[in-house]
Amino acid sequence: MNNFGFNVNEVIEKNRTTIEDIEHIEEWLTTETLPKLAREQIIAFLISCDNDRKMTKRTIKCNYALKSSSPDLFTNRNIRGTELENILNVIHGCEIPHRLNGYLIGISKLNDTNYRNFNLVAYIKLVTMSLETICFRENVPEGLILILDCKGFSLMHLSHVKINILKWFLQYVQEAIPIKLKSIHVVNSSSAIEVGFNLIKPFIRNETIQNVHFHSLRTMEFFYENHIPKSYLPKDYGGELEAVSYYHEQSLERLNRMHQYFEFEEQQRYKDFNFL
């Protein structure tokens, strides 16, 4: 199985990490009730933690603990399945091909604004799959800049939100993903978004809150000048690149190519592992 987009030796040659750090984590894994990770997986965790061994171990433990505690989100990860096919009609997401200072830019937006069609669990499942796909892109990203387009999001969407699932997801994103989340930009913000954000704010760490930025149509020039230039944005947001729908299709192709990886990763996990 090799769906990893980078070569271990090339990453080491570029001084993104060291063979000593990789071997240290490999040896540590043999002493834990954890899956035996491929070197590419270890590299993703190390780079996301700035090669801090202690933090890397903590992140790996948290990652597999949370996966174990929510099996529905991490089994049958097949975008050809009905659940994910449906949410892909509701949500469009993509990765921008150009990196901003080494950071990959990801975008998520509503394609279907009918709240009845929004499935939070399916959406979170899709997001976790997309995050893992990003981790194993060619030339491992320094981290992720996320744009959440909330146009069409209403208070009725909040009626589909389950706090316990959101709490789990926020812990996963903040403590367990093998990629550094540099910043989150909420565009087309509204009063419904303010209500939703206040709902989840108790579960967000202060350092994360400081990296969340809200933008309306009136403040987009500030967004271009201080956060993401137009040359890195789709034309949906006044940028110079192709539309989100174009890059969405490319991202779907990447998720399809990762099908073998998702099967491998599921088999790799110990079924009875639960760190929590």
Automatic annotation (TrEMBL):
Under CDD domains, the record lists: SEC14
Give the GO molecular function terms: phosphatidylinositol bisphosphate binding
Q: Which residues form the CRAL-TRIO domain?
A: 120-245
Annotated membrane-spanning segments are none
GO cellular component: a single term: membrane
One Pfam annotation reads: CRAL_TRIO
Please state what the protein is called.
CRAL-TRIO domain-containing protein
